[in-house]
Design goal:
Elements (H helix, E strand, L loop, with lengths): L2 H24 L15 H4 L3 H16 L3 H4 L21 H19 L12 E6 L6 E6 L3 E2 L5 E2 L19 E3 L4 E3 L14 E3 L17 E3 L59 E4 L2 E4 L3 E2 L5 E2 L7 H19 L18 E3 L8 H5 L10 E2 L11 E2 L5 H11 L13 E3 L4 H6 L24 H19 L2 H5 L4 E5 L16 E4 L2 E2 L35 E2 L13 H7 L18 E6 L15 H9 L3 H8 L15 E4 L6 H7 E6 L8 H6 L4 E4 L4 E2 L13 E2 L8 H7 L2 H14 L6 H14 L7 H4 L6 H9 L1
Parallel strand pairs: 7-8, 13-16, 16-17, 17-18, 18-20, 21-22, 21-23, 23-24, 24-26
Antiparallel strand pairs: 1-2, 3-4, 5-6, 9-10, 11-12, 14-15, 19-25
Helix pairs in contact: 1-5, 5-6
């Protein structure tokens, strides 16, 4: 054996011995069966500190009855919710810091052995993770590719037969990397978009669906390829700015669309790929610089071949190790002595098919995205915020990637965030609306069920298998320290049952046991598949899961008293001295679908229909008053100014800001009416039995909302009128203190900062961005600390 081989063998033995020593020093490692939330702080709960302290003592006594060997099996859900603190079920801070320091040092040695297969074949970026288990390296493949080395085709076809997975229809050439329809070879501009166009007779030549796709621009083939008649060139051959315009005009995608007749626009990517020098946003996904990787190019990669790049990763890990070795654990949500924030969150870089690929292949510009860049003139490059129903899953991802709570070293983490866009994935099956191409009723006829819910279940299970196999952290706690977002209409109902120990981040706080779907529209409880779903027993566990606010764009809050006063230099609470209660001349307001047709018979569990029956007769007269038809209010008593309507209005924000109380009811699953009310200073009236609202287990909702049981809806108006003026004013003042916690202002602030740094217009949202420090993400992190 050569001297070099001897040295190598000795080196490997030293590493192995070091790993054994570390394991012996660890002693008993406490595993949290359910992640312990913090005790609610006095300012968040509105009091009750003595009760919480007493509960902590009781919980501590209960935990003390278990010896060290049994604590690993202790079910934290048996501890009173207010008393669940990570301190009870975690090792002491000094031991934790010592283990982190030694593990991080071993990580630097192990990292040198981590390599990506074939350097990802030049079709992806290499993520390298340092830990004491030997490190990990894997490829994040570009759209259209998969496999350990990004060497396996993974197409996203545009056309498929009926009953298959159809993302879009394409009468031209399909770019199966990103599921985009282009003109194709043989045309003057082969990359020109052909979105939303079809030539006559296309349904005879390829898979096509009508009438769901019937809104396409139609014409003879000559209208799209040269020879359009009368000297007009076809769409695919027309020269921009020269000669006659083509007879048909197809829709465009965001992005450059080089050589097209489309106005170039900036595409949306997660955190816009970090800005110049870190990566390029291309068709919704980030193409990172050589030494970077990740959904937003924020992970030191190393380029897959060591050298200076590997040294960069090692330096980053060393910085984390040094910070962890000198910092004591801080108070919840605070910064440790070494400058690290607590809790520390590791954000998985999951395969792009679970997030950024969904952005790349979206059918319309605002689907799944938070922003578009389609302004005109001086505002051409300014962000415009979307109304994406499931935008919170993207906003949370962006915020945690850029958060000071984020750590690149998983062994330093208190929590692990899995950035999966469930809402975006499921919504793909509902485009184009309303025709659904999955076989929703097949199982009723003895066939195989083919439901969006079942596909979402299998899709999430695939991701869970990846999480379990890529790193050891899920397996050591059964996912108890993992955060898993499930933001679609039915929340976590059709997430895998294997997530039962994880913290589910959802909008659907339905506490009912053995629930059925909220309507036929969201069918999921189908045997035998439902038995493997989280919702088989319940869709939301208030002892560990957290209901987060849904995404609301700044433009939808134009009349909010908080933002008006903030932009005008109002009080520090953003609501002024009266808590945003002045100028409210309407008693109650609700505007939304009231289930007026047979198709919506079971919509909202029938609650909205019941509200319409009770109070719909007051709407016309109250609306005339609101429109100025009754001078001075003399014609309509305040107690009759109740508007329950399904007539859409461009004055929605204004009407919320004029109302004292606003209705909150479910829709197709969760509804964002709670956020609409809170963000306009309107006291929420909760008409949803057994369904939690955002942060209901975090904040003292009784101080700013009213809950009316369904069987008392008939007496709701009397109950609201019986509330004393001081009680109403106290709730309005409390709303002015908590409203910002139901926004994602930090995400708006971050985009405005990126725009300012690049010299771009910043777009709307200045007033909301000013309150970003105390938004929903900050509230979540404070609760986890």
């Amino acid at each position: 054996m050569s001297q070099a081989q001897n040295c190598c063998s000795i080196f490997l033995l030293l590493i192995f011995g070091l790993a054994l020593l570390m394991r012996q020093d660890e002693g008993v490692t406490v595993v949290r069966i359910a992640p312990a939330h913090s005790a609610h702080s006095a300012h968040a709960r509105g009091g009750g500190g003595g009760e919480a302290a007493a509960a902590v003592e009781v919980a501590a006594a209960e935990v003390g009855q278990h010896d060290a060997a049994e604590v690993g099996q202790y079910d934290a859900r048996l501890v009173a919710f207010a008393a669940r603190t990570r301190l009870l079920l975690s090792p002491p801070a000094t031991r934790r810091a010592s283990r982190r320091r030694e593990r991080s040092r071993a990580s630097l040695l192990a990292l040198s052995f981590a390599r990506c297969a074939s350097n990802c074949s030049g079709r992806g970026s290499c993520v390298r993770v340092a830990d004491s288990t030997g490190g990990a390296a894997y490829c994040l493949c570009a759209p259209g590719w998969a496999g350990d080395a990004c060497d396996v085709r993974d197409p996203s076809p545009c056309n498929a037969p009926d009953g298959g997975r159809v993302l879009s229809r394409c009468a031209g050439h399909c770019d199966e990397d990103v599921n985009r329809c282009v003109c194709g070879e043989g045309s003057a501009f082969p990359r020109r978009p052909m979105r939303g166009c079809q030539y006559e007779g296309v349904e005879k030549e390829r898979a096509w669906l009508t009438p769901a796709w019937g809104s396409f621009v139609r014409g003879p083939k000559a209208a799209f390829w040269s020879g359009g008649g009368g000297g007009q060139p076809g769409w695919c051959d027309a020269e921009p700015g020269r000669g006659p315009r083509p007879p048909r005009h197809c829709a465009c995608y965001d992005g450059a669309n080089g050589g097209s007749l489309c106005t170039p626009t900036r595409p949306f990517c997660v955190n816009q790929c970090g800005g110049a020098g870190r990566g390029e946003c291309r068709d919704g996904y980030c193409v990172c610089a050589r030494d970077l990787a990740g959904a937003d190019c924020s992970v030191p990669s190393g380029g897959g071949e060591g050298g200076a790049a590997a040294a960069g990763v090692a330096a980053a890990a060393a910085a984390v190790a040094e910070a962890g070795s000198t910092a004591a654990d801080s108070a919840p949500g605070g910064a440790a002595a070494g400058g690290r924030s607590s809790p520390r969150v590791y954000v998985y870089e999951v395969p792009p098919r679970y997030n950024s690929l969904l952005l790349a292949r979206r059918l319309v510009h605002d689907a799944c995205a938070l922003r578009t860049y389609e302004g005109k003139g001086a505002q051409q490059d300014a962000p415009a915020w979307t109304s994406n129903l499931y935008g919170a899953e993207v906003a949370l991802h962006e915020a945690l990637l850029a958060s000071p709570h984020r750590t690149h070293a998983p062994e330093e983490a208190d929590y692990f965030f899995v950035p999966v866009y469930v809402g975006c994935f499921v919504s793909e099956f509902n485009r184009p609306y309303p025709t659904h191409w999955l076989c929703d009723g097949c199982h009723r006829k003895g066939g195989k069920a083919d439901l969006a819910s079942l596909r979402a279940l299998a899709w999430q299970r695939d991701l869970l298998l990846w999480v379990r196999g890529a790193m050891p952290y899920w397996n050591r706690s059964s996912g108890a320290d993992h955060l898993w977002p499930a933001m679609h209409d039915e929340g976590a109902c059709y997430s895998p049952a294997e997530l039962r120990h994880a913290t589910l981040l959802t909008h659907w706080g339905r506490t009912h046991t053995r629930p059925n779907g909220s309507s036929e529209y969201h069918l999921w409880r189908v045997d035998p598949h439902a038995r493997g779903m989280y919702g088989w027993s319940r869709c939301y566990d208030p002892c560990k899961d957290i209901v987060l606010p849904s995404w609301r764009r700044p433009e939808a809050m134009g009349a909010s008293p908080y933002l008006r006063r903030s932009s005008g230099g109002g009080g520090g609470d953003g609501g002024g001295g009266d808590g945003g209660g002045s100028g409210r001349d309407l008693l109650f307001y609700f505007n939304g679908n009231l289930g007026g047709t047979s198709q919506f018979e079971n919509y909202s569990f029938g609650v909205r229909q019941q509200l319409r029956r009770e109070y719909g007769h007051l709407a016309a007269r109250a609306q005339r008053f609101a429109d100025g038809g009754a001078s001075g209010g003399g014609g309509v008593p305040y107690g009759e100014r109740v508007i329950v309507t399904d007539v859409k209005t461009p004055r929605y924000s204004e009407m919320l800001s004029r109302s004292t109380f606003c209705g909150v009811m479910p829709g197709w699953g969760w509804s964002g009416r709670f956020e609409d009310a809170v963000l306009h200073g309107c006291i929420p009236v909760l008409l949803q039995d057994g369904i939690h609202t955002p942060f209901e287990t975090v904040l003292d909702w009784r101080s700013y909302a009213v809950r009316v049981p369904r069987d008392q809806i008939g007496g709701m108006r009397r109950r609201l009128l019986e509330l004393s003026p001081p009680a109403v004013q106290a709730m309005q003042l409390r709303l002015s203190q908590v409203w910002r916690r139901f926004t994602y202002g930090s995400v708006v602030a971050a985009e405005r900062a990126r725009a300012a740094a690049a010299g771009r217009p910043q777009g709307p949202g200045a007033a909301l961005a000013a309150h970003g420090a105390d938004d929903a993400v900050a509230t979540l992190l404070a609760e986890l600390a």
